Amino acid sequence: MRSWSIPAGRLFGVDIRIHLTFLFLLVFVWFTQSVNLGPAGAARGLALVAIIFLCVVLHELGHALVARRSGVAVRSIILLPIGGVTLMEDTGQRTADPARDIRISIAGPLVNLLLAAVSGLVILLFLPQVNLWGRPLVSAANLPRALFWGNIFLGAFNLLPAYPMDGGRVLRALLAERMEYVRATRLAVTIGQGFAMLFIFLGVWNTWLMLIGFFLFVGAQLEDRSVVFQSVLESVRMEDVMLTGFSTLSPADTLEDALHKAVHTLQDDFPVVRGSDMVGIISKQRIVEALRRSGNGYVQSAMVRAFDIAQSTDSLASAFRKLGRQGLNMIPVVDQQRLVGIVTMQNLMHSMTLLAETRRLRRQQESE
Length: 368
Description:
With 368 residues, the chain is α/β, with parallel strands linked by helices. It has 2 domains: 2-235, no CATH class; 239-365, CBS-domain. Helix content is 58%, strand content 14%. The protein has a 4-stranded mixed β-sheet. Strands 7-8-9 form a 3-stranded mixed β-sheet. Strands 5-6 form a two-stranded antiparallel sheet. α3 runs antiparallel to α4 (143-157), α5 runs antiparallel to α6 (181-202) and α6 (181-202) packs antiparallel against α7 (207-235). The two termini are 37 Å apart.
């Protein structure tokens, strides 16, 4: 998800990212409105996209605030034109909690319906010339009417039982009571993709429906990959992917010596060890920054002293949670209080690919 999105800052402590499909929407609206409204259409089209963007942000903040009140930490929000994806802190638990999940899911549509009610009341009382019931309902030619109907459509559309729409999340929560969590998600995703194909087919008569179907299909794919990846992380142990041949540094090493050693290894992050005790972590980037800032010194002055460790039998998912909390790129692996390996973001995807291929070959051999 992050590779197909760009950062847009933080709001209430939550990272906001914009999925590239929003840029696709911007181009689509700019092109269509320029044709329909002439030179002024491009600016009004941009304003229409801004309105949709604001509605989506408020929609996802509704999810985030209710999630926090329910005890679920929110890591980031990835904005899609159809409502976005709220990435919550994974606890490692896959037990169903339908009441909590339903509360979180319906918060977003309720925010949009509330915005629609407020904007509709203001238009009826103070802007009767807007003609709230005129057509087209959502157009750059009439932005106040687009604000009202955009929230109506966004709220109603997200209540469809089409994952990753909020109605689909409600469906997934109910299914998860009766079956394994990943299976429930994949079934909800399949239903969501069915809705996406239906919208794309109906797009023969309405271009907006085709666009919605496309965004829905993309969102379902993102969610499917996310939950499958998470299930794989839960089944992989640290000892399966950790690096056992790695370099270490001493807190008494100079930064220049550390940089020289770093040049001759593919490692980007190094455990800092004094005797048999690990006392810190330092990265190539941190070494270079310290040299530029203060000149040659000792590793001890530049290393990070706060870090988590993992047991060799811990799941890879638990390691990800620890890395996320500390904001580091490496986690040391210990066995009986002895450093036996490291797991870094750098080697992780390579290891996971090889591990997946190994498991596939093993399954083939078992079936023969």
